Amino acid sequence: SKTPVGFIGLGNMGSPMAKNLLKHGYPVIATDVFPESCKELQDLGAQILDCPAEVADKADRIITMLPSSPNVIEVYNGPNGILKKVKKGTLLIDSSTIDPSVSKEMAVAAEKMGAVFMDAPVSGGVGAANLAKLTFMVGGVEEEFTAAKELLGSMGANVVYCGPVGTGQAAKICNNMLLAIGMIGTAETMNLGIRLGLDPKLLAKILNMSSGRCWSSDTYNPVPGVMEGVPSANNYQGGFGTTLMAKDLGLAQDSATNTKTPVLLGSLAHQIYRMMCARGYAGKDFSSVFQFLREEEGQ
Ligand code: NAD
């Protein structure tokens, strides 16, 4: 039988990911700061503990899926953090999207304790997390990749080795900058078409058989009524929060500054998502930029 896997952070993404580990026969030992997020997993047979240190005491493979850099620092380095109790040889995989420099710091701290840290942020959204179809972008020591791949393979369709620690984050940050630009572009395009008298469903169908097609138009359309089973069909609840997208665009801006790279549209996308956070969209899915654009136009 399989040895237990620790899982820390049972939010929109972490919950379905941990469920897929259970489905593949891995016993799961989990924790989250909000006890209510643990309920569902506990009902499915996961063992729930009080803090990351306790998880580290019991598991020699741990996955973390947390909102942002400060949460990751807390969960690894905090007073009840993983590194307080981590066992030698433990494989630590962080699937949160965070600053690559924080991933590097965590790897150094883990190494001091005799453990291995890898960054493995994901792409695909909640739908892909449920279906175990995520893409994992993995950074870390190459010799550890096989062990990481075995575990991540039960939660994803693609597990890609990117290079040394931090390079998984680099790939993820680039993807999300393009995703944000694509989503805003799709939202404003759909809105223009609607203003020109086109039925939104028909317009989406045409875009999706034409050169304007992208993930935001064919898999995650931001216009209510165009697709089922996406956040726009459910008042933009669940999915990928606007705050998280603003965070990722901030990471892209920092990286662009550090590498002196011009990212003009990425910068504009960052400003748009920051403004949305300040205007009541913080808790909604990032496709609510469609709603935001409609408001800006006084509708
Ligand atoms: P979320 O906010 O829904 O979940 C995060 C969970 O972490 C919450 O349940 C929270 O209670 C828990 N948490 C926070 N601090 C903690 C701590 N100190 N100890 C234990 N638990 C703690 O976020 P999410 O949507 O699941 O996203 C997680 C990460 O994955 C983010 O970095 C995000 O950018 C990235 N991501 C999200 C999506 C998506 O579609 N939602 C897609 C790809 C990547």
UniProtKB/TrEMBL annotation:
<comment type="similarity">
    <text>Belongs to the HIBADH-related family. 3-hydroxyisobutyrate dehydrogenase subfamily.</text>
</comment>
<dbReference type="Pfam" id="PF14833">
    <property type="entry name" value="NAD_binding_11"/>
</dbReference>
<dbReference type="GO" id="GO:0005739">
    <property type="term" value="C:mitochondrion"/>
</dbReference>
<dbReference type="GO" id="GO:0050661">
    <property type="term" value="F:NADP binding"/>
</dbReference>
<keyword id="KW-0809">Transit peptide</keyword>
<dbReference type="InterPro" id="IPR013328">
    <property type="entry name" value="6PGD_dom2"/>
</dbReference>
<dbReference type="Pfam" id="PF03446">
    <property type="entry name" value="NAD_binding_2"/>
</dbReference>
<keyword id="KW-0560">Oxidoreductase</keyword>
<keyword id="KW-0101">Branched-chain amino acid catabolism</keyword>
<protein>
    <recommendedName>
        <fullName>3-hydroxyisobutyrate dehydrogenase</fullName>
        <ecNumber>1.1.1.31</ecNumber>
    </recommendedName>
</protein>
<dbReference type="InterPro" id="IPR015815">
    <property type="entry name" value="HIBADH-related"/>
</dbReference>
<dbReference type="GO" id="GO:0008442">
    <property type="term" value="F:3-hydroxyisobutyrate dehydrogenase activity"/>
</dbReference>
<dbReference type="InterPro" id="IPR036291">
    <property type="entry name" value="NAD(P)-bd_dom_sf"/>
</dbReference>
<feature type="active site">
    <location>
        <position position="172"/>
    </location>
</feature>
<feature type="domain" description="3-hydroxyisobutyrate dehydrogenase-like NAD-binding">
    <location>
        <begin position="166"/>
        <end position="292"/>
    </location>
</feature>
<feature type="domain" description="6-phosphogluconate dehydrogenase NADP-binding">
    <location>
        <begin position="5"/>
        <end position="163"/>
    </location>
</feature>
<dbReference type="GO" id="GO:0006574">
    <property type="term" value="P:L-valine catabolic process"/>
</dbReference>
<comment type="pathway">
    <text>Amino-acid degradation; L-valine degradation.</text>
</comment>
<dbReference type="InterPro" id="IPR008927">
    <property type="entry name" value="6-PGluconate_DH-like_C_sf"/>
</dbReference>
<keyword id="KW-0496">Mitochondrion</keyword>
<keyword id="KW-0520">NAD</keyword>
<dbReference type="GO" id="GO:0051287">
    <property type="term" value="F:NAD binding"/>
</dbReference>
<dbReference type="InterPro" id="IPR029154">
    <property type="entry name" value="HIBADH-like_NADP-bd"/>
</dbReference>
<dbReference type="InterPro" id="IPR002204">
    <property type="entry name" value="3-OH-isobutyrate_DH-rel_CS"/>
</dbReference>
<dbReference type="InterPro" id="IPR006115">
    <property type="entry name" value="6PGDH_NADP-bd"/>
</dbReference>
<dbReference type="InterPro" id="IPR011548">
    <property type="entry name" value="HIBADH"/>
</dbReference>
